[in-house]
Design brief:
This protein has 253 residues and is an alpha/beta fold. Helix content is 26%, strand content 24%. The protein has 7 helices and 10 strands. The structure holds adenosine-5'-triphosphate (ATP) and magnesium ion.
């Protein structure tokens, strides 16, 4: 099956100054789990924001599910977990309310939630291990638990594509395992994933392809590179013929 879910072609992306990314191309096919790797500030978040139309592209094109981004309206097909919990400080929402907000794109704001909505919310809460916290204010959760609530919100929308920006940053080992399990379920049901990560940890077996961003471009697109620890091993003989492809940062030396 080769349905293109994301197609980025020769995109230039930036904010006010010079482009952060230049001539970036990336295709993601249905069922793939693609990890975006790279050092801090390399442009990983900028790349996924460009895919979602959250930052404009200055050149090139982005296509989602075969539709050019500027004409794409089927946002219920995509779940997005941003890098950090943004607003929400002072908002007295419960965990269940935050997760239920992930259903809004599907049911519309004015229609009351039905059984399908309640079931999707309950399933998502269970998938991230927060069912017992559903009635608690999100402000009383730890940072890692709040991150899990955001993942549950994205899952509750039953998207076809999940876009996750460092979903396991600052999340303990047990929660990472729980998240990996939830993601495995999503992928087994036919979902497609684009995620940014620094440490893949328990996600590693799920990743089908890795893309490394470095100095404004994609410098690797293929197998998951070995983390620095592997190369740091004193017994490791550095014989990779392609070592100049490996970028600076966590994934090199
Ligand atoms: N909203 C913004 N306005 C202006 N510049 C920005 C903005 N967001 C990011 N940048 C700049 O774009 C570059 C890439 O940032 P980006 O957030 O994409 O990096 P990243 O790879 O996600 O880093 P990290 O691993 O720290 O999350 C950086 O130089 C950053 O300063
Ligand atoms: Mg980032």
């Amino acid at each position: 099956m080769t349905t293109p879910v994301i197609q980025v072609a020769h995109a230039a992306v930036g904010y006010d100054g010079p482009p952060v990314l230049r001539d970036v191309s990336l295709d993601v096919t249905a069922g793939e789990v693609v990890a975006v790797l790279g050092a801090n500030g390399s442009g990983k978040s900028t790349l996924i924001r460009a895919v979602l139309g959250l930052v404009p592209i200055g050149a090139g094109s982005v296509t989602l599910f075969g539709t050019p981004l500027r004409r794409f309206r089927q946002w219920h097909r995509i779940g997005y977990v941003p890098q950090r919990l943004g607003a929400g400080g002072g908002v007295p929402a419960t965990v269940r309310e935050v997760v239920a907000s992930g259903r809004l794109a599907r049911r519309g704001v004015l229609r009351p939630p039905g059984r399908a909505d309640r079931e999707a919310v309950a399933a998502a809460l269970g998938a991230v291990g927060l069912a017992d916290r559903a009635g608690d204010p999100v402000a009383t959760l730890s940072g890692g638990q709040q991150q899990r609530a955001l993942i549950a919100r994205a899952l509750a929308g039953q998207p076809e594509l999940l876009v996750l920006d460092e979903p396991t940053a600052g999340v303990d080992a047990g929660s990472q395992e729980a998240f990996a399990g939830a993601l495995r379920g999503f992928v087994n049901d036919g979902g497609t994933v684009l995620l940014v990560a620094h440490e893949l940890g328990p996600l590693r077996p799920l990743i089908s392809r890795a893309v490394v961003v470095h100095q404004g471009g994609i410098v690797h697109d293929g197998a998951v590179p070995e983390p620095a620890g592997h190369h740091a091993d004193p017994d490791h003989e550095h014989v990779h013929p392609h070592c100049d492809e490996e970028p600076a940062g966590l994934w090199s030396i």
